[in-house]
Specification:
Elements: H1 2-17, H2 39-49, H3 62-65, E1 121-122, E2 128-130, E3 138-139, H4 153-159, H5 165-169, H6 176-183, H7 188-197, H8 200-209, H9 221-235, H10 242-247, H11 256-265, E4 285-286, H12 311-314, E5 323-324, H13 346-354, H14 356-362, H15 377-380, H16 387-395, H17 406-417
Antiparallel strand pairs: 1-2, 2-3, 4-5
Helix pairs in contact: 2-9, 4-9, 6-7, 11-17, 13-14, 13-17
Amino acid sequence: MTHFWSIIAIVLTVVFSGGARAGELPQPLGDDDFIATDAKQAALGRLLFYDKILSGNRNISCGTCHHHRFGGSDGLSLGIGEGGEGVGPERHAGTGDNRIRKRVPRNALALWNLGAKEMRVLFHDGRLSRSDLYENGFNSPAEEWLPKGLPNLLSAQAILPLTAQFEMAGNPKENEVAGAAHDRIDKVWPILAKRVRGIPAYGESFVKIFDHVEKPEQVTIVEIAQVLAAFMASEWRNHDSPFDAFLAGDQSALSAAQKRGLDLFYGKANCDSCHSGPLLTDQKFHALALPPFGPGRTRQFDPAARDVGRMGESDRLEDAYRFRTPPLRNVTLTAPYGHNGAFADLRGIVLHHLSPLASFDAWKPEQAKLPKAGWISQVDFLVRSDRREMARVRSRVDIKPISLEAAEVDDLIAFLGALEGVTAKDRPLGRPKEVPSGLPVD
């Protein structure tokens, strides 16, 4: 009988909306779907998130590339990390000896709803996941050197960019953090923890917030990771979109075009085959033949600039050029799109999904949003002159072409707009005007 009524419910849902919907709609998100966060920890994490004290050269913060003004991202195809100046699309590659030496190889990770309990893998290649492999709760680039005691996936994610040369650590010989990272990844975190706890406002706050911390000297990277995660989990938690209202039973929450787009998303367009569940991601990896460019996330033995995606983490040939399915909530706020930001707007990435190879062949370098940096520009599109590598990327496509009319594409984009939260641009805490280190806030 239970199975019978489940079928009836699905049929009624399709009939009620008037569409030919094949996929099943997800359940609405609620409080129990997210990790619990402490408000005081989140408030402290907010300051550290925007404090450049966590970077090797004290010139970049987490918030630089995950800024409130740009929906928790940076508005660029590939980020301008350590050494750059400014924020968002206006950020440039720096000047003089401090200018960047390499672009960040991938598009800045969107932060929306990463505190969901269901979230089990992070980064475009999934190099961070829950696991007991190293007896610290996670499989990460730090392997057995990741500190024990990190409470959740997001806290583990928070401390990895601090060790990355072109993101926040800086170049070897520039500072002690970069030198430590060049030696062994776990040697970075004690240096940064000492910096933070040495600032009275920070040290005293940790003592007040954590019962097990009796004096500032006891603050470690674990406590820092915990407050950063508390901030990100609460600040970018958002599920009050028209789509959420529709899931909760308000049939008037979506416009006619958005309802048609919903039926396409869960039907003819087959979007939900990958963008499934309440987070609108299957958290798996798929090859889409996205046009390659940039320095790539090369492995030690890669002969030239390229990015093999999931294979770089798994070492399995079948994972070549596959990347993690991104969640889609508030997708309207996180352009450009793709693991390398190849498409500047939603229409571009939607059309690519509908006809990957035609889009691959038609793509032009001008479509990438890359701040000019003449001294590294020869690398930006070097991979596109590698005939064999381009053929390899083009040969790997996990999705089948789908034919949609122009009006249907418009409807599908309208539905994606219905995934933007009503309060998405009005975050609980927002960007601080100043931070305890006294360093400038981007």
